[in-house]
Amino acid sequence: EIVSDEDAFHWNLLWKDKYKGLGTIKDSVRDSYILAVGYCLQDELNGVLEDYKKDGDTANYNKRLTEIFNRTDDKTIDIVGKALTELKDKIYGYEVDSGKKEMAQGKIAINFAWSGDAVYTLDEAETPDAGDNALYLKYAVPTEGSNIFFDGWAMPKGANMELAQEFINFIESPENAVLNMDYIGYTPSIGGETMFENAIDWYGATAYAPTTEVTKEDVENMDEEEAEYYYVDENDNVYESVYVGDYVDEQTLTFVSTEESPLFELDDEEGLVEITDPVEVTAQDLTYFFKSGDDDEENYIVYFYPEEADRQLMAQYPDEETVARCTVMKCFTDDETRTLNNMWETAKVGNTSDLALIITLVIIALLVAAIVVVYQLYKKGVIFQPRAPKGYTFTRYEK
What we know:
This protein is of the alpha/beta class and about 400 residues long. It folds into 3 domains: about 5-150 and about 315-350, D-Maltodextrin-Binding Protein, domain 2; about 205-280, no CATH class; about 355-399, no CATH class. The chain has helices at about 5-10, 30-40, 40-55, 60-70, 75-90, 100-105, 115-125, 160-170, 175-185, 195-205, 215-220, 225, 285-290, 310-315, 320-325, 335-350, 355-380, and strands at about 25, 95, 110, 145-150, 205-210, 230, 240-245, 255, 265, 270-275, 280, 280-285, 300-305, 325-330. Strands 2-1-3 form a 3-stranded parallel beta sheet. Strands 5-7-6 form a 3-stranded antiparallel beta sheet, with no helix packed on it. A two-stranded parallel sheet has the order 4-14. β9 and β10 form a beta hairpin. α2 crosses α5 and α5 (about 75-90) packs parallel to α16. The longest helix has 26 residues, at about 355-380. It is extended. The N and C termini lie far apart (about 75 Å).
């Protein structure tokens, strides 16, 4: 473990000396500004969180966070600028898209990323191609709060509205939305049973249960991807990978094999072993996202193994507590944009001291003088003259 879970949930981790040179931030004033606001105003933000824990007023909590993260007064810009200037010498560098690759390759340990890029990075770090270099990465939204974003489609003036709507219908159909989410990492805007079942299929805790509906020959005739869901023992008995949600004790958040519902786990040395001791799972309630309406009384809960906490599931389907602390950033005015851009460029370059400025000017003056001297020597034929062939001499004529 390079970064502790505790540190990962706070914006100040990037300023900690123990992580110097291990992190990147976006080369974007909007994204990096909110990061620094979270760091500079962490005491005020934590105070708002404590108030929320007492009164439970989610709307007011988010409203107060939104006001803080959108501050662009002179005082806030000044302290944020100083913090970002300090951060310049503590990070690995600035990036816009390369952070995904650098994180997956282990070049850095902290990357300020959009959630879909984070999912892509987590997946990429664990691909079979990574081999012994595979990395176990996590995703965190700091407790002080963060920003909300989305990638959307815009219809330009003069567009073919009917075709555009057909495209949206195509890309947002559950089957295609799953494929798109698998490729880009970002969560589509649709819920529904198909999308929830996909979340369970990707992230739900599983175990093996005996089945008589599939034979050894059936498994042998399956493609490799489908066959991964089955196990055939030495006696040709077939076991199917099943989601354990239906077997979980909601009071203890555990499941165990029973006579009515035998469950097994795969051991590298012993093969399938019956689960005789309760196994712990974690529950993530996503009813707020998947509920289709007031008449839908189903609870949409994903049960997953604890070691998968703060990973792809949280990045694609955050819980309500995380959503509550994410705010919408306002559009900066032209004056605010100019001020923030100036602050950002200064922070990336750093404040040049008087001594450094004098040294720079002296070096420039010496270079100019050297160029003048070299040019004069060249005109006089002292340097850079071509060599005459053997038996000949060059004569210089001045016009």
